[in-house]
Amino acid sequence: MTKLVRAAVLTNYLEVTQYLGFNPRDVLAAVGLSRAQLQAPEHRIQIDAAVRLLEDSATASGCQTFGLSMAESRQLSDFGVVSLLLSHQRTLRDALQVVVDYRHLMNDSLAIFIEEAGKMVIIREEVVTETPMPSRQATELAIGVMFRLCSALLGSHWHPYSVNFMHQAPDNLHLHRRLFGCKLEFGSEFNGIVCPDISLDMTNPNADPAMARYAQSYLDSLQGHEGTSMLFEVRKAIYLLLPMGRATIEQVAQSQGMNVRTLQRRLKDDGCAFNDVINDVRRDLVLRYLDNPNYSLSRIADMLGYSMASSFTRWFISQFGMPPATWRAQKQGAAKVQVDAVGQVVPKET
């Protein structure tokens, strides 16, 4: 089943294109979307089309911070019907749980995991598509929106330690610094936000328990209208847990609120096995990691769950027909050339 999201995930898209003086007609048509669809927030669009639109728009407009530019003006109301429940949660911890519980009503491609480590909390996020594709812009948009949500609920009490991205920094960090106002870490081992543990339990002075109960009752009435795919939910869990060394079937089953046998049965109903899903996610993540020059092969092996680099190399050869070092060298070589107007490959200017 094709995964759909609210068109509201692309809120401010048209405003950003206008600001940049960029006509999005061609990129919209290329992914099968239209201006009219983007102007109807509750209209459902394909996840992959939305993510591809952001990447193509960033490339075509020459704006490396396209996704983050969209996040800068996001409001709590852009979460749709879920915004009423969010605004009346007692603490940030409660609000984040609402985002997790009702994400299918907002953005079903978003995987979120809250990791508490001593006096720090890591809010991990991943944008998961049905087919592997670059998602830098969608990732920055998602983290930017999460940051603004936390800021809206905590106000001046929101003081995160850092915002982390697995991809490399853009040429200009002005927008990142203005929006986040905290330490920025690129080439990180995860995408997300690191904040003090006390942030999660700060009280929201605007919370109204009665309104929260009303909003939750309404949202629960919508639950049956949305189908969920266990296979897709498991993929999202693995995206988050694999770099942490916790993507075992036991941990993934726990993240889905079920035992191992139930998870295996549900996956079998979807025509696959857990090891197949792990392998598919590894194939997707390894190419993303190899694109990052800051990641050594040994580090990549560890992030993919291989304790020995030789085991990782054997797996990579079985999947891609060459060692990872060879794949990376060929990719770097291809990046140094470009195609001219008549289709000839020529060296890129430096």
From TrEMBL:
InterPro entries: AraC-type_N, Homeodomain-like_sf, HTH_AraC
UniProt-listed PROSITE patterns: HTH_ARAC_FAMILY_2
SUPFAM superfamilies: Homeodomain-like
Origin superkingdom: Bacteria
HTH araC/xylS-type domain sequence ranges: 232-330
Swiss-Prot/TrEMBL keywords: DNA-binding, Transcription, Transcription regulation
Molecular functions per Gene Ontology: DNA-binding transcription factor activity; transcription cis-regulatory region binding
Entry keyword annotation includes Ion transport: no
Cellular component GO terms, alphabetical: cytosol
Gene3D superfamilies cross-referenced by the UniProt entry: Homeodomain-like
A family per Pfam: Arabinose_bd
Name the UniProt record assigns to this protein: AraC family transcriptional regulator
Originating organism: Pseudomonas laurylsulfatiphila
